[in-house]
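Intended use. Records like the one below are meant for learning the mapping from a protein sequence to its folded structure. Do not use them to infer anything beyond what is encoded.
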Amino acid sequence: MAKGKQATVFFCQECGYESSKWLGQCPGCKQWNTFVEEKVRTSPAPGMRGAGASFSHVSGKNKPVKLREIASGSEERFSTRMEEMDRVLGGGVVKGSLVLVGGDPGIGKSTLLLQVCRHLAEDKKEVLYISGEESLQQIRLRAERLGSFSDSLSLLCETNVDEVEEAVRKYTPAVVIIDSIQTMYQEQVGSAPGSVSQVREVTGRFLQLAKGLEISIFLVGHVTKEGTVAGPRVLEHMVDTVLYFEGDRYASYRILRSVKNRFGSTNEIGVFEMRQEGLAEVKNPSEFMLSGRPEGANGSVVVCSSQGTRPIMLEVQALVCRTNFGFPKRQATGIDFNRINLLMAVLEKRIQMQIGDCDAYVNVAGGIKVQEPAIDLGIVMAIASSFKNRAVPEDVVVFGEVGLSGEVRAVNMAQVRVQEAKKLGFSTVILPESNRAACQEISGIRLVGVRNVQEAIEFI
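Structure written out for the chain above:
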């Protein structure tokens, strides 16, 4: 087979934009210094016709089809027998889906997927685990720690995507695990494994297999220092679902978060605890996150955050003290740093709280990262509690979005949040006044509606 000519091309690591020369700013995604140089073949590989070639039968042999002629119906799913995993996937694994699982090294991605393989194999589903990083003996050692496995699980150590595709077509398993996508390579692409062009082309091949053979494929992806999946951002656009495995590798908790899901809710989370025998599901994350909460300490407030369809109680801690330097220090863990500065400015401007010359440290206990604005009121009250040395009662839950005028705005899923607080034994909920009327039918818990930050702080 004649080899094609090779040329030097520059790829954007964020969006995959291709250029014949190096550019400081990518014309596609407008990011700076993202271009890398790679050598690629100028002639296409034989038999490669694009990402949609192998499942053209799905669309009627590439002929346009009227919308009303397409048979409607719910997607076919099967359970992993792990409730937290099924929740993040939107109710189970969809047949023929392509799922990308990313996370820091050593966080437990391979352990989680091996446990999923174990449960699926016990349900008599054929599973093929393909590893490009570990030997068969290494996988066997980790599997023995997790428990016994059924004969429905097969292992293969291979990095050549052509050999992988041949094995998948020969054994036609129900589920395939690729660990990891950065180790796979295609011979027709001249660059090294893990490069932008290799990751893009290899993912395209697995997309063909998943849709053409209706096989569910899980791809393990490495992450960069910024926490995103390594490789071009187009990788996340190609797959059906993107899951991130988060948490401190030295702590026991792990959080599996859905950031993209074509078959379910996004921003859904599943909580796991790392144990010697593997990952154990945490059925009540609120109780888990509040464990070890100090009694009668100022600067500690319980807030209710919505993660997808699930309300979770979290403890927001704040420590405010006079600075010993000319410039006050601000630090945030688990919360957006700029949001802390904004809320402190609201406190100083709207209720004349003199905290401009104070150091402020704000933390979400448990290590979870929260971007939802519904915890704004809890952050404000934690800062005020620490500044005034007045503890917030332990049986109080707070939620609400804070605007620049100091007003407390309504949030979604208020009834679900109040129900969660009642279930965990809290007696009082401080919430936006505009949400209080919708929650009046919930009995057995006191509802305190507030219109602005001043009213919330005066109540405490």
